Structure formats: structure tokens, C-alpha cells
Amino acid sequence: MTAMTSVVPRLILGFALVAVMAGNATAARSGRGSASSGSVPTFDVRPSCKTGVDVGIRKDIQACVDSENNSRAELVKHWDEFAAGDRTLCINAASTGGSATYTELITCLEMLRDAKALNQKEARDSAAATTGTETRTKSKR
User: Fold this and answer.
1) 27 alpha carbon, distance to own chain's centre
2) Which of 90, 95, 88 lies closest to 107, judged by CA?
3) Is 22 exposed, middle or buried (0-12, 13-18, 19+ CB in 10 A)?
4) Neighbours of 36 (CB within 10 A)
């Protein structure tokens, strides 16, 4: 494995942590509590969709809202597959800096899940390589 493959998951988790810390600071200033990870949150995605249309990223607000609602429906189906801590982290990250979207939430959850899986694979590969080296060294003695 290259050094870069082990750095990328750590960078992703680092960015997520920074976003959550910023969100917690914003929540503390605004007096609202942190989001619960018990169930899929309900976001008002219209402001984000409107901004997308206003800046030319989206052509139609309703198509954007429909897309976000489809993303929420997918989250509902798979919500329990994500770790509770990751759900809390990503709810806070998606809610930071403006109106939250389900697309941001699901992207965060998938990145954390995939980064953990990559780290676990690297750990298994490293352990297997170390065990293989130790076995070869012992057999030479």
C-alpha cells in the first residue's frame, strides 16, 4: 500500500470532524441542541434547491426537491446500516453552513463507512504481511 492510500481516509475523517466542530460552535451560539442520530432528520431542502437554481447549478427547484426526497427515502431504508456516531457526525456536518441536504448527509455517511472499510482492509493486509514475514523468518531458523 502506498502512503497516500492510508492518508486519504484520515483526511476525510478530519474534514468531517472540522465540519462537526464548526457546527457544534454554531449550534451553541444559536442555542439549538445537536441533532439526534435516532432517525433520519427532516431537512427543509427548498432553500438549498432555490440557491442551486439562483446560481445556475440547477434548472428546476421542484426537480431538486424531488431528488432530495428520493435521497431521504434511500436514507430511511439504510439508516440502521450506518454507525450511530457517524450518523450524528454527518447530521451535524450536513447542517453546518446553511441549509442541509440529504445528498450531503448520505455522501458523508458513505465516505465515513468506506474510509473505515479501507482502514480495516489495510490493517488486515498489514497483519497478513507481518504474519507471513514472521512465518518465513521462523522457518529459516
Assistant:
1) 19
2) 90
3) middle
4) 11
Nearest to 64 by CA among 77, 78, 50, 75: 50
Euclidean distance between CA atoms 99 and 36, whole angstroms: 17
Task: Give tens-digit pLDDT for 7-29.
Answer: 455 555 555 554 544 444 444 33
Residue type, 52: G
- Euclidean distance between CA atoms 99 and 42, whole angstroms: 11
Alpha-carbon distance 68 to 59, whole Å? 15
pTM of the entire predicted model: 0.65
CA within 13 Å, CB half, 55: 6
Residue of 14, 3, 26, 13 whose CA lies nearest to 100: 26
